[in-house]
């Protein structure tokens, strides 16, 4: 496919999307010496890690994501020296609390495992033992889990395409029957199997709806286990000044390496020549060329069906993309408060919690 317009300018690499993943990719490309341009549709960078004054001036809200729980497991902040580019993490002492209405108390997850267990014991000794056992299991698998989070996913249809080392690790995990079962288990089933107290089930189970899974969706059990373990392990870290300070630090790093970012620049299509991506066309008609590569952090459906065009990709890939199911929507309420929230019980602990969930137990 060619366009009537020729590129007015060329870069080594174009990155579509200035969320934190697109920017991270751009930083590593710039670090490797490439001349990089990031193109972002929105008026500012950040994607789903935006922080904006959406209520009143001076009140900053993290519009989507707020907790950077994976920060301590990712090599990125250190490798890109983000501290010197304005990135700072806060490590709240209490990672998460679940509050039960009508004076039914609360359970909290602390950075200290002993304190978390004490909090669970208020509701069930047995459940404290279950959590200790599960967390010990996580610690045994920790290196493997972290390496899987930080390496490309294994292509299960073509094991030769990945390193033998990764395949062996993956099989070691997958062959353990209980672990494999948990990957397909729903949140409700996992909670009922592992805990007896409705309050404890509510705290651990809340990680599934937190990311848009219903209690009976497949995979919720694994998600609750991993989310709780990672937060127990590394804390529920918050980016000082708002999550947007992560993409801002990445942008600072990128610019220090000569990379550029253009906001309010929606990519309309990727231009192909002889099946090779050679540039992009923006909605304003501007054409930008690339000498080496284009990387996109849009969702796969936008990339394949809109930006490239299904006629240019394998028909099986296009049909797989079309059957992709979008998750349920969630809604948020943003408030400008005239002071910290006051809780009728547990004020001291709840006011120190990075995150407070509220629900009836057993609901
Ligand atoms: C409500 C909510 C809460 C969340 N909470 C957390 C949390 O607490 N902790 C956590 O770790 N994760 C959380 N997440 C998930 C996390 O925010 C995302 O996984 C992450 O931000 C994705 O980053 P990304 O860079 O891959 O994509 P995005 O942040 O989506 O960035 C993609 C960018 O591409 C741009 N774009 C799209 N199409 C085009 C185009 N055609 N041309 C140019 N630009 C384009 C978009 O405008 C966007 O800026 C949450 C997500 C949501 C929705």
The helical percent reads 25-40%
Uncertain segments: none
Tell me the span between the first and last alpha carbons: 55 Å
Strand percentage, roughly? Answer: 15-25%
| Arrangement of strands in the largest sheet | 9-2-1-12-11-10
Each distinct ligand: flavin-adenine dinucleotide
* Major beta-sheet overview: 6 strands, mixed
SSE arrangement, N to C: EHEEEHEEEHHHHHHHHEHEEEEHHHE
Let me know the average pLDDT. 91
Tell me the Rg in angstroms: 23 Å
Domain module tally? 2
What's the β-strand tally? 13
**What is the overall silhouette?**
globular
Description of the molecule:
The chain has helices at 20-31, 76-79, 113-121, 125-149, 164-174, 177-184, 187-194, 198-205, 207-210, 220-234, 245-256, 300-309, 315-322, 347-350, and strands at 9-16, 36-39, 51-52, 61-62, 89-90, 94-99, 106-110, 238-239, 260-262, 267-273, 276-282, 287-296, 356-358. With 363 residues, the protein is α/β, with parallel strands linked by helices. The chain has two domains: 9-66 and 242-322, FAD/NAD(P)-binding domain; 92-238, no CATH class. The strands form four sheets. It has a six-stranded mixed β-sheet with strand order 9-2-1-12-11-10, with helices on both faces. Helix 1 (20-31) links the parallel strand 1 and strand 2 (36-39). It is globular, with a radius of gyration of 23 Å. The N and C termini lie far apart (55 Å). Bound molecules: flavin-adenine dinucleotide. The site of flavin-adenine dinucleotide has 25 residues, from helix 1.
């Amino acid at each position: 496919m060619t366009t009537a317009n020729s590129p007015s300018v060329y870069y080594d690499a174009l990155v579509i999307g200035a969320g934190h993943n697109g920017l991270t990719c751009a930083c590593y490309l710039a670090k490797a010496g490439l001349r990089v341009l990031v193109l972002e549709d929105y008026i500012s960078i950040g994607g789903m890690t935006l922080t904006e004054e959406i209520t009143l001036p001076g009140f900053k809200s993290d519009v989507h994501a707020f907790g950077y729980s994976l920060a301590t497991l990712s090599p990125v902040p250190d490798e890109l020296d983000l501290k010197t580019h304005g990135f700072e993490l806060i490590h709240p002492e209490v990672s998460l609390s679940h509050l039960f209405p009508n004076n039914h108390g609360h359970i909290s997850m602390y950075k200290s495992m002993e304190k978390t267990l004490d909090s669970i014991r208020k509701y069930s000794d047995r459940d404290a033992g279950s959590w200790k056992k599960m967390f010990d299991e996580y610690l045994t698998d920790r290196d493997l889990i972290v390496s899987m989070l930080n390496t490309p996913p294994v292509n299960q249809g073509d094991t030769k395409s990945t390193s033998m080392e990764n395949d062996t690790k993956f099989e070691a995990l997958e062959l353990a029957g209980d672990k494999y079962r948990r990957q397909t288990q729903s949140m409700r089933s996992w909670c009922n199997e592992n805990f007896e107290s409705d309050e404890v089930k509510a705290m651990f189970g809340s990680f599934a709806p937190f990311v848009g899974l219903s209690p009976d969706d497949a995979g919720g059990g694994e998600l609750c286990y991993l989310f709780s373990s990672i937060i127990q392990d590394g804390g529920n870290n918050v980016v000082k000044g708002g999550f947007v300070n992560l993409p801002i630090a990445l942008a600072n790093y990128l610019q220090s390496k000569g990379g550029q970012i253009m906001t309010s620049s929606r990519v309309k299509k990727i231009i192909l020549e002889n099946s090779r991506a050679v540039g992009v066309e923006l909605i304003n008609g501007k054409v930008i060329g690339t000498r080496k590569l284009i990387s996109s952090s849009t969702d796969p459906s936008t990339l394949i069906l809109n930006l490239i065009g299904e006629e240019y990709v394998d028909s099986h890939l296009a049909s797989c993309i079309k059957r992709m199911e979008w998750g349920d929507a969630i809604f948020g309420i943003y408030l400008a408060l005239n002071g910290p929230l006051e809780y009728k019980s547990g004020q001291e602990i709840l006011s120190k919690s990075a995150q407070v969930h509220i629900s009836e137990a057993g609901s």
